[in-house]
C-alpha cells in the first residue's frame, strides 16, 4: 500500500494494478490521479479506468475429503523398498549394468506431510506456517521483501535414519525462499536461505519486517528411510544405459521404487519430498545455469514438491519442485550459508 504514494509514477501505476480486485476504490483513486500526469503513464491510467470490470472468477470446487491425494496425510509413512529387493530386481531387469547402477544407491529421508496439530512444539519438523527463531535473529530479505518460510526440520527427528550422519544431530534446519524464486518467476540460485538453530529451547515467534506475501499451509512432518536411484532423465543414467530396452526397464523400476508401499494405482508418488538422496526431476538435469558452480560440486540437501496437509495445498509456481543444494565442502563444514535454492516447474 505505501507504493500507491510512491513518487515514481510508473511504480505507483504498477502498484495500483495489484489493487484492481482487492481494493477497487484504491485502484480507481490512484489511477484517477495518475491519468492527469501526462505521458505514457497518464494514457495507460486513463485506458485502465475506462476498461470494463474484470469478470468474477469461477470458484474451483474443493476436492472431496476421500480424494486419494489426501491419503498420505491420514496414514503413517510406509517403509521404502529394501536393499536386497532392489538388488534382486535391478539384476533381473538390467543384467548388463547391475553393479554400476547399484553403486548409485543413496540413502534419503522421505518427507511425509501430516495434518497440522495444535499441540505440535514450535521446534517440530513441519512445512509452512510461520517460523520460531532464536532471539536476535534477523529475517532474510531479497530485494527488500521478506523471504517466505518454507519449513523446518528438527534434526533429532532424523538423526537415527541412514544417511543423516552428515547432518547435525540436533537443532533445527530452517528453509526460506524468495517469493519470485519460489513461484518460478526467476531462474537462478538467488533468493534462498538456510539456517541451523542449535538451541531449540530459546525459539520464539519470528516477526518479519513486513507481512510476507504468502504463508504456506502448515503440515507436520514424519519421515521414512529410503534408498534412491538417479532419475531416468538424469545425464548420469543416460550415460550408463545406451540400450533402449535397458532404459525402459530402468524407467519401470524407478517408478516402482518411488511408489513402493503406496496404494496400488496411486498417481501421486512424485508428490513427496526428501532430504539428501537424488533429485526427482521435473524438467531435465541441466543445473549449471541455475547454480553458481558446476552441478557435480553439490549435494542435494532438500527437495520439496507440492504438498497437502489433508485439506490445503501448497504449490510452487505453476507446479514444480524446490531444490536446496549445498556444495560438498559446505555439507562437510555444515556451512548452511553456502546453500543455493533452485526450482523446476511445469
Please state the structural category. Answer: alpha+beta
Largest sheet: 10 strands, antiparallel
Lateral strand order in the biggest sheet: 8-7-6-2-10-1-11-12-15-16
Computed CA radius of gyration, to the nearest angstrom = 23 Å
Helix content: 10-25%
Whole-number mean pLDDT: 90
Overall CATH class of the largest domain: Mainly Beta
Q: Indicate the overall shape.
A: globular
Low-confidence stretches: none
CATH superfamily of the largest domain: YwqG-like
How many structural domains does the protein architecture include? 2
CATH architecture term of the largest domain: Roll
CATH topology of the largest domain: Hypothetical protein YwqG fold
Q: In angstroms, what separates the terminal alpha carbons?
A: 32 Å
Strand content: 15-25%
- Structure summary, number of beta strands: 16
Can you describe this structure?
The protein has 346 residues and is α+β, with helices and mostly antiparallel strands. It folds into 2 domains: 2-50, no CATH class; 68-345, Roll (Hypothetical protein YwqG fold), CATH 2.30.320. It has helices at residues 9-17, 24-34, 39-50, 83-93, 98-102, 179-182, 235-240, 244-258, 328-333, and strands spanning 106-114, 126-127, 132-133, 141-142, 145-146, 148-154, 172-177, 192-197, 204-205, 219-228, 274-276, 298-305, 307-308, 313-314, 320-327, 340-345. The strands form 4 sheets. A 10-stranded antiparallel beta sheet has the order 8-7-6-2-10-1-11-12-15-16. It has a two-stranded antiparallel sheet with strand order 3-9. It has a two-stranded antiparallel ribbon with strand order 4-5. α1 packs antiparallel against α2, α2 packs across α3 (39-50) and α4 packs antiparallel against α8. The chain is globular, with a radius of gyration of 23 Å. 29% of the residues are buried.
Amino acid at each position: 500500500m505505501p507504493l500507491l504514494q510512491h513518487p515514481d509514477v510508473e511504480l505507483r501505476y504498477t502498484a495500483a494494478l495489484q489493487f484492481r480486485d482487492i481494493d477497487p476504490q484504491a485502484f480507481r483513486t490512484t489511477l484517477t490521479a495518475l491519468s492527469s500526469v501526462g505521458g505514457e503513464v497518464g494514457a495507460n491510467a486513463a485506458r485502465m479506468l475506462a476498461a470494463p470490470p474484470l469478470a468474477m472468477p469461477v470458484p474451483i470446487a474443493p476436492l472431496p475429503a476421500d480424494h486419494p491425494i489426501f491419503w498420505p496425510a491420514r496414514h503413517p509413512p510406509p517403509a521404502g523398498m529394501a536393499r536386497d529387493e532392489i538388488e534382486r530386481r535391478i539384476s533381473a531387469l538390467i543384467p548388463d549394468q547391475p553393479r554400476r547402477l547399484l553403486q548409485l544407491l543413496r540413502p534419503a529421508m522421505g518427507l511425509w506431510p501430516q495434518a497440522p496439530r495444535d499441540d505440535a512444539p514450535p521446534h517440530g519438523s513441519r512445512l509452512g506456517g510461520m517460523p520460531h527463531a532464536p532471539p536476535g535473529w534477523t529475517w532474510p530479505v531479497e530485494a527488500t521483501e521478506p523471504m517466505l518460510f518454507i519449513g523446518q526440520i528438527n534434526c533429532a527427528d532424523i538423526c537415527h535414519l541412514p544417511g543423516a550422519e552428515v547432518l547435525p544431530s540436533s537443532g533445527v534446519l530452517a528453509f526460506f525462499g524468495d517469493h519470485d524464486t519460489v513461484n518460478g518467476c526467476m531462474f537462478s540460485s538467488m533468493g534462498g536461505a538456510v539456517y541451523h538453530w542449535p538451541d531449540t529451547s530459546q525459539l520464539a515467534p519470528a516477526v518479519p519486517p513486513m507481512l510476507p506475501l504468502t504463508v504456506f499451509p502448515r503440515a507436520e512432518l514424519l519421515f521414512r528411510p529410503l534408498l534412491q536411484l538417479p532419475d531416468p532423465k538424469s545425464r548420469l543414467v543416460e550415460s550408463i544405459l545406451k540400450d533402449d530396452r535397458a532404459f525402459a526397464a530402468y524407467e519401470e523400476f524407478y517408478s516402482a521404487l518411488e511408489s513402493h508401499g503406496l496404494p496400488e494405482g496411486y498417481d501421486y508418488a512424485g508428490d513427496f519430498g526428501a532430504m539428501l538422496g537424488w533429485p526427482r526431476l521435473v524438467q531435465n538435469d541441466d543445473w549449471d545455469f541455475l547454480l553458481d558452480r558446476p552441478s557435480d560440486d553439490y549435494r542435494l540437501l532438500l527437495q520439496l514438491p507440492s504438498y497437502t496437509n489433508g485439506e490445503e495445498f501448497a504449490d510452487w509456481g505453476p507446479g514444480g519442485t524446490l531444490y536446496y543444494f549445498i556444495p560438498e565442502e559446505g555439507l562437510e563444514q555444515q556451512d548452511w550459508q553456502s546453500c543455493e535454492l533452485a526450482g523446476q516447474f511445469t
